[in-house]
Amino acid sequence: MSKKKLKTDGIYFTGMASDEVTGSQYLVRFGKYQCLLECGLYQSANNSYLDSYKINSEKFKFKPSEIDFIFVAHPHIDHCGLIPRLVKQGFKGKIITTKNTATIMKPLLLNSCCIVEDEARILSKRYKRNYEPLYEETDVYTALNLIQEYDEYDTLYHLNDTISFQWLKNSHCIGAAQLQLVLHNNEKTRKILYTSDIGALKTNNHYLADTEIPDMFNDIAIMEATYGNAKREIGKSRNFDVQHLKVAIDTVLDRKGSVIIPCFSFSRTQELLSTLYDIYGNDEDFDTQIIVDSKLSCDISKLYSSLLNGDNLKIWASVYNWNNVRFISDVDESQHSLMDSTPKIVISSSGFCTNGRVVNYLKKYIKDRNSMIIFSGYTGDNASYLSYRIKNYREHKFISINKEKILNLADCITLSSFSSHANYNDLIKYGSSLKTNKLFLVHGSTEGKRCLSTSLQEAICKNDKSYRVISAFKGMIVHL
Question: Which CATH architecture has domain 238-418?
């Protein structure tokens, strides 16, 4: 992308999420201003440290010092995890987000910092050359100090004479939003809708409001396509999954086994805890210990009390103070829990089983026929994911964990309705209900975007509308 092209008003698809499902980053150039719609870390699907490092350390397609604003619609690392590197390279602008997203960004970015430093150390040792960390803790704190909070949804904020914006409701996670960006000068006005990752239109998750479909016109809409493949249409209801969860847990505990739930630290851990409380919280005979074993999960769970209010805060207080729950941050305490074979329910990160303490629990329990692994969302679509291999036990009777070959014997189920992403049907309904000239699909596989694009175009026609659906790609430029 040439410097000459960067002088043109437009949207520049600069991040990996233009081609894949991670690494969100889009440059908006308008007049004398430059904005980023998020700046996320790329996370390799095959868990290759080297592949991720090479992509995340690439030279930015713009000068970080010339970026005026970064809009962060939610705090997941693939949407904000590269901001500290941007700061390290000279960014001094403003980071625009909601209060709850700002609060959660701190522990997530500090945890990400530890991970990128550890990965750089491993790469340096493995390849016998110096790999510098993408960023350090000082860069994280500098980034956090650049945050400005705008907390009201459906309220137009004016940043200057050229740039205005508003947040729209999004059930993806606490603090999440969709963004409408309004750009204006003497010659023209342009309105851009950016969904970021969106949750269900009718959410079943605790503590969240439904994702809204914008009613206003936008010249350009940019929509995620994570579940764009029709194969990911979710037919099971939340009620079905809750009953399935209860029967599974009761069955495992009755045969003296343990339940291991690999789980993302933010949002999913707290949602599953709340669901377990709904099932067992008032059952005086339920005395099984529920262990949350992850420092990050514990830190975020503690923060939830400051994120919620009203009835939601009352519900979470009951969950957090439930006698059956034990939060483990300390490494030694985690090891003690691991060695204790008393039947229990363990919620531990990470969701894809790529790293974290859950790997140790899996190493112990997947060879136990009496135990069960419960996944609560997307498990990857190929064998590079440990979660995928565990789930597809018929093709993967032995699994290698930390170079040890282990029999894959434990039962395994997946609770698909707990995903934080809008499912295929919701994406069709959302994308075909917009008022826009062009709809660009991002944050999805090539096949997923192709499938979604075809179905969306049909649904748009049925709705007597005529806007085009376009699959974005890295390097694409859309002129404004």
Answer: 3-Layer(aba) Sandwich (3.40)
